[in-house]
Amino acid sequence: MADRDVPFRDKAIETASREEIKRIQTAGLKKQVEHALNTPFYRGRYKNAGITSPAVISTIADIRKLPFTTKNDLRDAYPYGLLAVPREEVVRLHASSGTTGTPTVIYLTQKDLDMASDTMARSLTAAGGSRGDVVQNMMTYGLFTGGLCFHYGAELMGAMVIPTSAGNTIRQLKFMKDFGTTIIHATPSYLLHLHAAIESEGYDRGELKLRKAITGAEPHSEELRCKIQDKLGIEVYNCYGMSEMNGPGLAFECVYRAGMHVWEDRYIMEIVDPETLEPVPDGETGELVLTILCRDAMPLIRYRTRDLTRVITGPCECGRTHRRIARFTGRTDDMLIINGVNIFPSQIEEVLLRTKGVGANYLIVVEKDGVLDRMTIKVEITPEMFADDTRVINALRERIRDELTALITIRPLVEIKQPGSLPVAEGKAKRVEDLRNS
Ligand code: DLL
C-alpha cells in the first residue's frame, strides 16, 4: 500500500512541518481573536473574560485562555450577533438544526465561500478525485451544506457535477448509468438503499462507472463501510463536517482510509474531556472542539462540536502532516441524526407543548426500516381529546405531523396514545428510544 499514488491539491501545505502548521495556527488565531471583537457576541463574551485584544495569544497553547462557544450561543446571537463584516459583504447563508425552533445559522462572504470550496476540493483530491470525474451529489440542496458546499468544491476541483440532490432513486440510477458517474456523495444509509435499488431495478454493475463514494453527515461504523464497499465494489471515504464550520470536508480520508485528516492550517482542533473541559492526551476519546481560521463573516472560536472522537497518533502513509481523527463514537448531547437530518428532542417537545389536546407524556422511537431510519412520535393526548370523535383525533395527528415536518424537515409517524398509557420514568424522563443498533 505504501507506494500508492498519493494525490495532493497543495502538497506544500498538506505536508508542511508541524512547526509550520503551529506557526500558521498561532498567527491565524491572533487574527481571528482580533476579528471576533468586531462581533457583538464576542465583544461581550471577551469583555467578561477580560480579553480586549489578541495580545492574549502568543503561542497556540494560549487558546485555552479563551472561553468556549456553544450551539446555544449561536441561538442567542441569532440572527446577526456573530456578524464580523458589513452585512453587504455576506453572499450566502446556511443553517442546520438548533436545539429548539431557532436554527443554527452561518453566513459567508465570497472569500469565505472560496475558502470553503478550496477546502472541499482539497479533501476530494485527497480521496483520489480529480478533474474529469463525474460527481453525483445525492445530498439535499438548500440550507444543508452537504448540497451546495460539496457541489462548489467538486466543481472547483474540475469535476462535472450532477446536482441530483437527495431521493428519487430511480432517477439517480438512470443518471449514474447515462452520464457515467464515477463518484457519488450520499449518507451511508442512502448508499445501502441505492445498492438495494441497483439490484431490484435490474442494473448490471458493469453498466456503471462508479469507483468511489464519499459519505458522511451521520455516524456509521467501519463494518457498514466495508459492507457498502463489498456490495457496490467501490471505495468508500468518510467525510466529516458541520454547517458551523463551512460544511463537509473539514476532515477527510486520504487514499489510505485510515482516519480523517483535519485540515489544520484552516482549523484548530482540541479534544477535551466533556466534563472538565480540560484537554485529553492524544489517543484518548473526548469532545472535539474546533476553531475556524478561514472565515471572515462569522468567526467561531473554540466551538464545542459535541462530537466524540480521538486523535490517531503516528504519521499517515500518505505523508500528510495534518493529524487524523477516528470515526465518531457518539455525541455528548441528545441530538439524533435521522437519515442524515439533525433533530433535537427539544424541537419536537416544543411543537407538542404548544399543541392543544396533547397530554403530558410522549416518546420518540427511532428504528430501522430496511436500510433507512424511521421515527415515530408516540403522543399521549388529554382525556377530553381522547373522548372525542376519531375524526378530531385524526385531524390532531395530522396537525402534529405537519407542524413537525415544517420544523424538522422530515415527516415522522405520529401515534396517538391514550392518557397514561406511555411508561412514566421514575427518574429523568426517557424521551427517546433509539433501537437502530439493537
Ligand atoms: O452534516 C455536514 C456534512 C455534509 C458532513 C455532508 C459530511 C457530509 P450538519 O447538518 O451541521 O452538517 O451536521 C453536523 O453531523 O456535528 C456530526 O454529529 C454529524 N456528522 C457529520 N459528518 C459525520 C461523519 C453536516 N462523517 C453533525 N461521521 C456533526 C459521523 C458526522 N457524524
Query: Percent range for helical residues?
Result: 25-40%
Biggest sheet details: 9 strands, mixed
- Any ligands, ions or cofactors bound here, and which? 5'-O-[hydroxy(phenylacetyl)phosphoryl]adenosine
Strand order of the largest sheet: 4-3-5-6-7-8-9-14-13
Overall SS class: alpha/beta
At CATH level 3, the topology of the largest domain is Rossmann fold
Distance between the termini: 36 Å
CATH level-four homologous superfamily name of the largest domain: ANL, N-terminal domain
Name the beta content range. 15-25%
Overall pLDDT score: 94
Task: Spell out the blueprint of helices and strands.
Blueprint: H1 11-14, H2 18-36, H3 40-48, H4 71-76, E1 90-96, E2 104-109, H5 110-126, E3 134-137, H6 145-157, E4 160-162, H7 169-179, E5 183-186, H8 188-200, E6 212-216, H9 222-232, E7 235-242, E8 247-253, E9 260-262, E10 267-272, E11 286-292, E12 303-309, E13 311-312, E14 324-325, E15 330-331, E16 336-338, E17 341-343, H10 345-353, E18 358-369, E19 372-381, H11 383-386, H12 390-408, E20 413-417, E21 432-434
Parallel strand pairs: 3-4, 3-5, 5-6, 6-7, 18-21, 19-20
Antiparallel strand pairs: 1-2, 7-8, 8-9, 9-14, 10-11, 11-12, 12-15, 13-14, 16-17, 18-19
Helix pairs in contact: 5-6, 8-9, 10-12
Bound molecules: 5'-O-[hydroxy(phenylacetyl)phosphoryl]adenosine.
Q: Which descriptors would you attach to this protein?
A:
Rossmann fold; 31% helix; four-stranded antiparallel β-sheet; alpha/beta; binds 5'-O-[hydroxy(phenylacetyl)phosphoryl]adenosine; 2 domains; single chain; 438 residues; GMP Synthetase, Chain A, domain 3
